[in-house]
Amino acid sequence: MENFQEKLARFMRGRYGQDQLYYALIALAFVLLFINLFVRSPFLELLLWAVIILTLYRAFSRNISRRSMENQKFLKIWNPVQAQGSLMVRRVRDVKTHRYRRCPHCHKMLRLPRRQGTHSVTCPVCRKEFKLHIPW
How far apart, in whole angstroms, are the C-alpha atoms of residue 126 and residue 112? Predict the structure, then answer.
């Protein structure tokens, strides 16, 4: 007799499975569940069930191209948000040693050592030189 893992692998063959949108929907379901523990709203419970059903539908779907397009659209929105959040975490972590400034020409974020005063900085992306004042 086959074990459960082999049966599950055979069942999932040809199905879409998990991707970044799947994990985001699972996280959303947990957030809604946590909020619903305190609020006890029938609307939130209905929304929670809709998210869970959508997540399972996407995971077991055989229309791989459609699910992949949905994931790409999600990532087009999610990646800039994630990059901004990661930049904020780095800025907080480096607050004692570095300062973050934008290049006025190409608008690339530069990580500069924290030295007070006026400095001449060369952007590594566009190679333009500009003056910069770091007050503290």
Answer: 16
Kindly give, in sequence order, each residue whose CB lies less than 8 Å from that of residue 112, ignoring residues fewer than 6 positions away. 98, 99, 100, 101, 119, 121, 132, 134
- Cβ pair 98, 115 in contact under 8 A: no
Burial class from Cβ neighbours inside 10 Å (0-12, 13-18, 19+) for residue 58 reads buried
What is the C-alpha separation between 76 and 105, in angstroms, rounded? 25
- Other C-beta atoms within 10 Å of 77: how many? 9
- Taking alpha carbons only, the member of 33, 74, 73 closest to residue 50 is 33
- Look over the chain and give the mean of its residue pLDDT values, rounded to a whole number: 94
pTM for the predicted model, two decimal places: 0.76
Residue 104, amino acid:
P
| Tokens read off for 45 | 């419970």
Q: Is the pLDDT of residue 135 over 90?
A: no
Domain boundaries along the sequence of the chain = 4-93, 98-136
Given a contact cutoff of 8 angstroms between Cβ atoms, the answer to whether 20 and 78 are in contact is yes
Measuring CA to CA, which residue among 32, 28, 52 is closest to residue 42? 32
